[in-house]
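Here is one chain, start to finish.
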Amino acid sequence: MTDAVTERSGIRKFYALLLTQTFSLIGTRMTDLAVGIWLFGQTGNATPLTLVSFFAIIPRFISTPFAGLFADRFSRRAVMILSDTGQAVGTLVLLASFLSGRFEVWHLYAITLFKACFDMFQGVAFQATITSLVPDKHRNRANAVQFVSSPIAAIIAPAITGAAYPLLGVAGIIAIDLITFLGAALVLLTMHLPNPAPNAAQEQNAIGEGQRSSFWSEIMAGFRFVWQHKPLLMIFVFTGSTNFFLAGANALQTPYILERTNNNAALLGTLLGAYSAGTLTGALLMAAWGGTKRRIHTMMPGIAILGAALTLLGTQSNPLSMALLLFIMAIFPPVNNVSIISTLQIKVPPALQGRVFAAISQISMTLIPLSYLVAGPLADRVFEPFARTPQWAAFAPIFGSGNGAGMGLLLTLAGIAIVIVSLAIYVTPLIQNMDSSLPNYEPTAAG
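Its structure:
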């Protein structure tokens, strides 16, 4: 098979995988929304929904290193099939719980925890597989197209759920989700995916000179690679820092918008739709453009602009201004993610990519649960009460004095922090010279 034919075959497989995973993601989003509608209708309380998000992210700190090792040591196709099957089992149990009439909230927490563990395996294996299917010259666009799937799901899933929920109920929506998981697994069963051959020299370098290979040393190889390549370490410490400020701000989007718009649920949907449209725009932008040749010049300015938009969002109560700022904010996470992933795919040996992706995911997301836990209490017990005190008069000309004004100050402070951290990292020589100081992976030199 010629190189051109192999290249076309790999790209076709990538898009086939992406299409089936997008359908699966739409099904998952439909279930999340349907269960949320049902649960809020039954309890009238938002706390259970917040806890679902918490339980969905916790497994990343447990399963991520294992997911990376599995993706590098076993067939990535088999790992993805296992992931889809495991999530399908969780969905089936959730469906059975609702159909039995004995559903309890703790069932949802447990099933969310179970499914999130398998979802982590899916993401790491899929990211590492892209390198084997798509050549570097097409990779920026392929990664960008991949990031289109999430905003598309965020736009399509609510529309389908809104129409289908009155007819099918929560159990019917969950059944659709189950079908999408099984469909994704069946497509994978019919597809051959290449796996990189193990390289003894790369493995020994990743584990450490003079160190014996063991289960734990292989798991830690991804962290060791990042530690040995300081520009990568700095990038992901930066990402973890900005995620702390951004995750809490995103968690406050719904209550902030509702407070600023006098609990207008329809307007909330429109503004969150503007955010999803921004995410889609960012992914399409990278698919069409691909970013700057030196990817750092795409990443850092984009996150600084995001921080500036968040800073201004905290001062706004006009829906049109809020929609525009939410749209701008959402453009840059996919731009940044595509740039980071493309950088890793060209710098990291393919046989180590599963573990490196797992390591950077864990580093980047370490502070997100803490952000979720502190953002709500800060808003409810500190900033909103402060906005009702006489001292607030100094802030009122900028943030207003109605409901949500205190949260606005909190969002603005988070935005300022993101801008400062982004610019401070951007001017660091180690980051400025990352493309030249961090060598590309060369297959011919691997031996």
